[in-house]
Amino acid sequence: MPAVVVLGAQWGDEGKGKATDQLGSRVDHVVKFNGGNNAGHTVVIDGEKYALHLLPSGILSPGVTPVIGNGVVIDLEVLFQEIDALEARGVDTSRLLVSASAHIIAPYNRTIDKVTERFLGKRRIGTTGRGIGPTYADKISRVGIRVQDLFDEHILAQKVEGALDQKNHLLVKVYNRRAITVEETVAELLTFAERLRPMVTDTALVLNRALDEGKTVLFEAGQATMLDVDHGTYPFVTSSSATAGGACTGSGVGPTRIDRVVGVIKAYTTRVGEGPFPTELLDDMGEHLRKTGGEYGTTTGRPRRCGWYDAVIARYAGRVNGLTDLVLTKLDVLTGLEKVPVCVAYDVDGVRHDEMPVDQSDFHHAVPVYEELDGWWEDISECRTFEDLPVNAQRYVLALEEMSGTRISGIGVGPGREATIVRHDLLS
Asked: Quick one: 29 and 171 in the same domain?
């Protein structure tokens, strides 16, 4: 099965590297197909921690070709900062390929993102301020700047001028900011052109040929299902398609070529930013999960909101993504709890909902209906088979599997790459 999509099944930060690691050396290409540097993931290899934001995790695996697909928006300064940081630590980044059709985050997109969020006040979305949303808005409005535009200065200047015609009115007249000139924007973008040029190609062609040759391609989503612009908790979502369908539109590989869709899900739930979160814990237990799980944003450093496992969301993620497998991470964080509640349904004004409410307002007012499972005290960080786990930990996993409706094929029991239990081969 050569084409595998790996994505977040909650609100992000689930530890998608665990699923990537489970595939190991059998992966030939790893593709980032959505988002930008508004999210990040941490990979731990031999005790060394690597925080990636824009680059696919495959950049850390020798022999793997990392690909930034057309669905990604790229901050070129961040891209090269990240490349330089990895090369300084001895990581070979020379295999990186970048789609000629990917959109570029221009300086004015970052400016507009920050001032707009401040302007919204209490109605803010909770963006990272990195220009992601405005760049996707430009893409849909057909005034975006693409990677290929960097290699024709005349075309680049024309496109920047077209984008700034409207944006400068907004900046000056609404937000009381100075106008941004075409010349300064073009000059900044062109500083990256020659270094970027060798990486740029028709990545869709490369990936389809790789699949034709029987190679394994891993499609790695940024953000997560509940942050998807169509299927997430709108408007508190990201600006791209973070579900399995986005892997096709963001890479140029057709849906009939996808063989397996793997959802990564924590043994509890976290969220960064604003928006509804039914199982959120605003007490000492929430703080315990945050500290024990190290729940602080890879990109922003913001404390993550923490809550219990939500099986309603797990079932929803399974449905909208067509999940074939789940990889459960951070099971070790729950060690030492006498009881572990799991949300099995919602109560909305006295009505039980076993599935996601259709109305966002209902979801905002949803009160979790919990079932309590017995906890365990034993250290599980050295467990490498399912049978090694304490009986209550095994029961917890099996209960989540039944409630979620998707088989749990892998279990994370610690932060390191090796701290993983494999129950089912993700390529079989």
From this structure: no
Residue 82 located in a structural domain: yes
- Residue 218 and residue 358 in one domain: no
Domain match, 218 and 309 both: no
Query: Domain tally for the chain?
Result: 3
pLDDT tens for each residue of 145-164: 999 999 999 999 999 999 99
Please give the residue range of the domain that contains residue 147. Answer: 103-194
Query: What DSSP assignment string belongs to 279-345?
Result: TB--SHHHHHHHHHHT-B-TTT-PBPEEE-EEHHHHHHHHHHHT-SEEEEE-GGGGTT-SEEEEEEE
List the structure tokens of 82. 């990240």
Domain check: are 273 and 175 in the same one? no
Q: How confident is the model at residue 119 (pLDDT cuts 50, 70, 90)?
A: low
404 and 291 in one domain?
A: yes
- pLDDT mean over 52-80: 92
- Positions marked catalytic: 13, 41
CATH number, domain containing residue 248: 3.40.440.10
> Strand 73-74 relative to strand 103-104: parallel, antiparallel, unpaired?
parallel
Q: How far apart are CA 4 and CA 78, in angstroms?
A: 27
- Domain end, chosen from 226, 261, 296, is at 261
Q: Which two tokens stand for residue 68?
A: 């930034």
Q: Which of 182-186, 261-265, 270-274 bottoms out in mean pLDDT, i.e. has the lowest?
A: 270-274
Please indicate, yes or no, whether residues 293 and 351 belong to a single structural domain of this protein. Answer: yes
Who's near 167: CB < 8 A, 6+ residues apart? 108, 112, 180
Section 373-382 average pLDDT: 97
How many whole angstroms separate alpha carbon 270 and alpha carbon 290? 9
- Please state whether the predicted TM-score (pTM) of the whole model is above 0.85: yes
Q: Are residues 256 and 272 in the same domain?
A: no
In a domain, 307, yes or no: yes
In a domain, 237, yes or no: yes
pLDDT digits (tens, 9 = 90+) for 87-117: 999 999 999 999 999 999 999 999 898 887 7
For residue 428, tell me if it sits in a domain. no
**Cβ 8 vs Cβ 269: under 8 Å:** no
Q: What is the DSSP letter of 373?
A: E
Phi, psi of 11 (to 5 degrees): -105, 25
Mean residue pLDDT across the chain? 92
Confidence band, pLDDT 50/70/90 cuts, at residue 170: confident
Integer CA distances (angstroms), 380 to 70, 119, 202, 261, 420, in order: 41, 47, 45, 27, 11
Please answer whether residues 26 and 64 qualify as being in contact, where contact means their C-beta atoms are separated by less than 8 angstroms: no
